[in-house]
Design a protein that fits this description.
This protein is mainly alpha-helical and 252 residues long. The protein has a single domain (35-251), classed as MetI-like fold, CATH 1.10.3720.10. It contains ten helices and no strands. The protein has helices at 2-25, 35-44, 46-81, 83-96, 105-112, 116-139, 144-152, 157-193, 200-209, 213-241. Helix 2 crosses helix 10 (213-241), helix 3 runs antiparallel to helix 4 (83-96) and helix 8 packs antiparallel against helix 10.
Length: 252
């Protein structure tokens, strides 16, 4: 409880300064709305935000996030276990993170159209990389002396993987999953910007075109809260999965 007090007070202080600055400087709402105006917009557009658009973005984010974790874990494990796979795929995995999504947006639309698959594909492109890197780095972080001991005792490759490499990789994997959880919301939002009918990204674009900036900020607040919620959910799971590690942050 005390650990959360400082961040909460900091956020409240920043909101207070923001509110005073906007009011005292007389800044128009369409340029920078005060926090109170954003709260009013959340209430004014509550049905559109919470019933029409938020469930769509949540579905896109969760589906893309889950598929990103599965794909990233599979790629990381394959590149660790088979060196030819690593040589063939690792450069492509890295290159995938240098591609501007906006630049290839027409290709995504040609492939998937204005569908859920298009948004999920963008989420996967954003989110699988930290998971894949976390898995391959984690598997390689296993104690070499312990690996040599097991090999000298005749342990099979599968037993070594289960007993040493996977437990060693788990913290790295979960660190990648936490990053993926945060950026998956960004991927879903950009996927909606590329085209669609519903979603918080679509709502924000519509409000921007009509200069309804408080409503735009309201959608941004919900997107931020969604990313924070996913991150905290993964952190909660991490704390329970890593109970066996006395020095793990999950136990602090």
């Amino acid at each position: 409880m005390k650990r959360n007090l400082a961040p909460a007070l900091t956020v409240l202080a920043l909101l207070g300064v923001w509110e005073l600055y906007v009011r005292l400087a007389g800044i128009p709402r369409y340029i920078l709305p005060a926090p109170s105006a954003v709260v009013q917009a959340l209430w004014q557009y509550r049905e559109q935000l919470f019933i029409t658009h938020l469930p769509v973005t949540l579905a896109e984010t969760l589906l893309g996030f889950v598929l990103s974790v599965l794909l990233g874990a599979a790629l990381g494990a394959a590149m660790h276990l088979w060196r030819p796979v690593e040589k063939a795929l690792y450069p492509l995995v890295v290159a995938s993170q240098t591609i501007p999504v906006i630049a290839i947006s027409p290709v995504f639309l040609w492939w998937f159209g204005y569908t859920l698959s298009q948004k999920v594909a963008v989420v996967i492109l954003f989110s699988f990389f930290p998971v894949a890197v976390g898995v391959i780095d984690g598997l390689r972080s296993a104690d070499p002396d312990l690996l040599d001991l097991l090999r000298s005792m005749g342990a099979t490759r599968g037993r070594i993987l289960r007993m040493v490499e996977i437990p060693s990789a788990l913290p790295h994997f979960l660190a990648g999953v936490k990053v993926a959880a945060a950026v998956s919301v960004v991927g879903a939002t950009i996927g909606e910007w590329l085209g669609g009918e519903n979603g918080l990204g679509i709502f924000g674009r519509r409000m921007t075109s009509s200069l309804k900036t408080p409503a735009l900020f309201a959608s941004v607040v919900l997107l931020s809260l969604l990313g924070i919620a996913l991150f905290l959910a993964v952190r909660w799971a991490e704390a329970r999965l890593l109970r066996w590690r006395p020095t793990s942050q999950g136990n602090r």
